[in-house]
Specification:
About 45% of the residues lie in helices and about 5% in strands. The protein has about 250 residues and is of the alpha/beta class. The strands form two sheets. It has a four-stranded parallel sheet, covered by helices on one side. It has a two-stranded antiparallel sheet with strand order 1-2.
């Protein structure tokens, strides 16, 4: 792996991408089978006092010591978005002690949906320095496009799960927590490294929206606001946030 530049490894073709973390993950899974500890998160290892290969890699790129990376992750001041089901990823960190990071948004729409076009966007984003990429697809073939992006991306991939959940119901009012947890788990199993969860939009805040010139500018927030206004119930993502974090 190039310790200094992910853009040199961004894969714009349809061929297989390298899997730099595959051996690390396989070794941990073998150890977990013996110990019964199936928590593979970097924070879990950091709080056990362990320095992972990801932390060493990040320390080299960030010009920090591995111990500083470990301690910052353990304290919750730094995160390493690195799903074990995304072995193509080169480890990176976001946090107070690390360099500032840039995210790029890509994704299809209801008007156009093409895997090759999204891979071109991914390649362009990484080539020009994006540290992370979000797949905000809302059109057809969401899962297939996300799979292609994950399998070709050397940087963490994020999503907004409620976009896919909405595509599975006839009306926004039909959304429910069981569907949301199902979508979140499916995306996590696929390899998504981080997600936008609109857990802060609460029913008691809805009256405040009427005083805002632009209303709710977040699409996900607006979807949940519509659901709460219709059902006169609290945001189910807020109420079940512990279940989300378990996934």
């Amino acid at each position: 792996m190039d310790l200094h530049d992910s853009s040199k490894r961004s894969n714009g073709s349809n061929g297989p991408s390298p899997k730099p973390r595959a051996e690390w993950i396989a070794r941990r899974q073998a150890e977990a089978a013996k110990s019964g500890d199936d928590n593979f998160s970097q924070m879990h290892y950091a709080r056990k006092g362990l320095v992972t290969e990801e932390m060493v890699f990040i320390a080299e790129r960030e010009k920090l010591t591995p111990e500083v990376v470990r301690d910052e992750v353990a304290a919750g001041r730094m995160i390493i978005p690195a799903n074990i089901n995304h072995p193509e990823l080169e480890p990176m960190a976001i946090g107070v002690a690390s360099l500032c990071k840039i995210n790029a948004n890509i994704g299809n729409s209801a008007i156009t949906s093409n895997v090759d076009e999204e891979l071109k966007k991914l390649h362009t984003a990484v080539h020009y320095g994006a540290d992370t990429v979000m797949d905000l697809s809302t059109g057809g073939g969401i899962r297939e496009i996300r799979e292609a992006i994950l399998r070709h991306s050397p940087v963490p991939i994020g999503t907004v799960p409620i976009y896919e959940a909405v595509s599975r119901v006839k009306r926004i009012e039909d959304l429910n927590i069981d569907l949301m947890l199902e979508v979140i788990e499916e995306q996590a199993q696929q390899g998504v490294d981080y997600m936008t969860i609109h857990a802060g939009v609460l029913v008691q805040y809805l009256p405040l929206v009427s005083k805002r010139i632009t209303g709710i500018v977040s699409r996900g927030g607006a979807i949940l606001a519509q659901w709460m206004a219709h059902h006169h119930k609290q945001n189910f993502l807020y109420e079940r946030f512990d279940d989300i974090t378990k996934i």
